[in-house]
Amino acid sequence: MRVTDLSIQQTYLTNYQKNKRTLQNIQQQITTQSKVNTPSDNPLANSKILRFGNQLGNFNTYKNNINTSIGFVQNTLLPMEGMQNEMNKVIIDLTSMNNAVVDDKLDIYAQNLDLTLATLLDFANAEYDGRYVFGGNDSSSKPFDYNAAGDKVEAKLPNIGGEHLARISKNSSQKINITGQEMFQSVYEQRGNLDSTSAIGSVDTSNETILDADGNEYTLTYNYTKTAANTYDFSYDITDSTAASVGSGTVNDLVFNPASSKLTSINGGNPEEIEINIPGNKIEFQFDLTNIKENTNPTNLNLNKNQDADIFNILISMKNKLNNGERPNDNQVKMVNNFMNHLTNKMSEVGNISNKLLDAAELIDSQRLAVQEYMSIEKDVDMAEAIIELETSQHSLDINYKISSMILPSSLLDYL
Amino acid sequence: MSINKLLDVAGRSLFTYQKALNVTSNNIVNANNPNYSKRRITMSQVAPDHRFGLGIGSGVEISDIARVRNELTDKQIIGYNHEYSYNNRYSELLTQVEQLYSEPSDLGVSNLMNEFFNSWEELAVNPSSTALRNNVINSAQKFSSKVNSIYDGYEVIKTDVKKEAEQTVSEMNNHIMNIYNLNREIYKATAVNRNANDLLDERAATLEELSKLANISVTYDDNNVANVSIGGSFAVDRVHAEKYLLAEEDGKLKIKPHEESGAIMVNSGKISALNDIFSKKITEHKALLDNLATTVMDEVNSIHSSGYSLHEPPVTGIDFFSGYEHGKLFINEDILADPRYIAVSADQTDGNGEFASAIGALKDRDTMDGLTFESKYSDFISGMASEIVQHDQQGQSLGLVLDQLSLTKAEYSGVSTDEEMVNVIKFQRSYNASAKLIQVADELFQTIINMV
To answer: H-helix or E-strand containing B143?
Structure first.
């Protein structure tokens, strides 16, 4: 091989460029602390980094949702605890007012009830972050308020039944509110299976004893009449103790899906609760048909009641009675106790939601740590290794410079 | 043999070694000129004097000054140059396109698009919150702005690429004209048996430069004239030289010999890399961005238009994005002016965020050719990155081959100062010896003259 001045220069320059390129890469990695600064640095790692980055973004969103939800849930629990205290006072009063010595002081109990009602109403209208805690999906006005006559507390139906859902992971959403409807309204949930093999025209009838706010008993009779395959008409009749009808109604075309057995529509619309309101008899409840099914395994139909009547109007009725020198009847006392149980159950539900949110937050934190670690493996620079590489490259470059001054100009010319 | 003859031989020798020293010094001063080929002197004996049947030598002369050149290496360099140039420039330009996406970072499309969808998820938890509504608008603006900046970036790159392509074609024409003139000069020199080494060196260097711009092929005729074709069509010889022009037709760059003629098939070299980026690659990237932006717009709008706003009474049928045009994703002006127009309620109540949740869930839906937005985009970016790596590696590999060929060329045609200095000493000594011979001849003359 013949060695010429140009070949020495070219070899030197090629090696010098290689050294500089290596040095530049390491310097960039050290200054950015990232091995992947553009997708072409490592296409596969880049693809993973994008995916991990989005996962981390999603975790932040879920975490934000959880934090917002925890705030909401905790501020749901506060008014519930307040209500529990108030209801405890009512229960103590109900016990103490049975004593004959307070016969002439029943109006004081009435005043206490009035104060409790006002406090309960405040708690029922509690707000958090611009929303009514028990207002369902409607935060435009108070969910509960007295009617114009001031003798009844009315709820803004149906919007107080709206659920708040928060996405807390890729595949799950959590209900974070206790709706005003489930907390304060009387909801009769229909359970059981209708017979899909029954003949058209057949009628499935059931009865249930119900109470009004005054504690009076009524009989609710309801029928499902088959009008076509998978289609029924629903009718109800409420009779008093003398068997006289105080209210009745019919809802047409309850259509079931034969494959899923579920109710798909009521009178052409989405399945939703039927509101039954007989003001003259202080009867008001929601008849929830959404969980009734139709299949080849018929079962008895039964009603699952959260409470017999709404607590506000029970207390108003009791207050009115006390003002008239009359004590609340046993059914009313029973309804107050039932509400207390209902409240305790709901508080426990809120506690469960809170625990679930905290668990989800913990899970997200651990998932986030794992993803950050995977991302770090793909992206982050091992500083110790990088600095050693930098030192080595710098050393090579220094030698390169030294050689350039020693070799390049050297020729016989220098020795002549 | 007369004393005069002795002076003739010595004088010729002086002249020969002086010439040899000139050639050697020319080699030395060109030692660092990469386009120079070492000149080799061939000396031969002047025809001897055969009078008296003795065959006495008549001295030395330079019979040839040859250009040391390896034609095979030259051909190989020209063959690899255009491929190297193509891959190198292609990966450089695609890297510029790659930088537009700002990946992988918080400012990249992937993250901003994800943030946009996540802002809907957060709104779903508290749909009546003005802060969260503004957050949705803000994240939509950031996403839209990024799409727009990428689109603008494409246009800037296209403009730059076109300018560079025009300059490259102009450079190509200059080289062609230069070769044409050199061909003519070489032809003239060859015809009168004149040494054309300098012209040949200059033409070889020009051909090398031209081969970096386009895929050329070169043949030489008996008169050492180079016939060059580009992309299979004639470009230059001794009697004619093409002058190419660059035209943009249907969004594609074309190189033509004349305005009316068809385009030549340039499929390698720098000009081809510029053409591929301008005509194909950026068009592909634009298509993906358009597809991504319009799909996001259509999918979001299809859900949003079914929702109800926060107004009393609630308004429905509102599009979130009002349109997409030339990289601009427009957010509904009404929404920008009043966030209450964001319509996410399914039941007209202000606390229902069902549609916000549905829009947020779009990021996990296979909406683009059976892939999620993120997967489609990520696949595209990975594809682009792999293409850069592939061309970069190919460029590096061809670069190594070219380095090796250049080294071979330098070893063969390059000047070694050491060698030349040895020659200098050699020729100087010979010159000194010839001068001494003249001195001897002079002394002989003096001796004879003094005898008279």
So the answer is: helix B130-191
Q: How far is CA A246 from CA A150, A186, B126, B289, in A?
A: 24, 18, 42, 67
Domain ranges of chain B: 3-70+415-451, 77-399
CA distance A377 to chain B (A): 15
> If 0-12 CB within 10 Å is exposed, 13-18 middle and 19+ buried, where does residue A373 land?
exposed
What average pLDDT score do residues A286-297 get? Answer: 91
| Neighbouring residues of B93: CB distance < 8 A, sequence distance ≥ 6 | B157, B161, B273, B274, B277, B281
How sure is the predictor about B301, in pLDDT bands with cuts at 50, 70 and 90?
A: very high
Instruction: Give how far Cα A153 sits from Cα of A121, A184, A311, Å.
Output: 9, 11, 9
CA atoms within 13 Å, Cβ hemisphere of B45 = 7
Chain B, nearest residue to A163 by Cα? B352
User: Beta strand B60-67 with B216-220: parallel, antiparallel or unpaired?
Assistant: unpaired
pLDDT classification of A408: cutoffs 50, 70, 90 = low
Share of chain A above pLDDT 90, in %: 68
Whether residue A321 contacts residue A313, with contact meaning beta carbons closer than 8 Å, is answered with no
Per the prediction, chain A carries an average pLDDT of 90
* Mean pLDDT, residues B152-177 taken together: 96
Inter-chain contacts counted by CB atoms under 8 A, chains A and B: 176
Task: State the smallest CA–CA distance between residue B60 and chain A in angstroms.
Answer: 28
Strands B39-45 and A274-278: unpaired
Which residue in B345, B351, B377 is closest to A136 by CB distance?
B351
- pLDDT 10s digits, A128-163: 988 899 999 888 788 999 988 888 898 876 678 888
Those residues with Cβ within 8 angstroms of residue A348's Cβ, 6 or more apart along the chain or in another chain = none
CB contact under 8 A, B357 and A167: yes
Quote the mean pLDDT of chain B.
92
CA distance A62 to B355: 17
**Residue A282: both structure tokens together:** 């202080």
Cβ separation A53–B104 shorter than 8 A:
yes
In this prediction, residue B345 has a pLDDT band, given cuts at 50, 70 and 90, of very high
Res. B119 pLDDT band, cuts 50 70 90 = very high
Q: What is the DSSP string of A100-138?
A: GGGGGGHHHHHHHHHHHHHHHHHHHT-EETTEETTSTT-
* Chain-chain contact of A130 with B128 (C-beta, under 8 angstroms): yes
Run of H or E residues at B103: none
Q: How far is A402 from chain B (nearest CA, A)?
A: 20
Q: Poorest-confidence range of A15-24, B42-51, B205-214, B410-419? A: B42-51
Q: Which two tokens stand for residue A263?
A: 């109710």
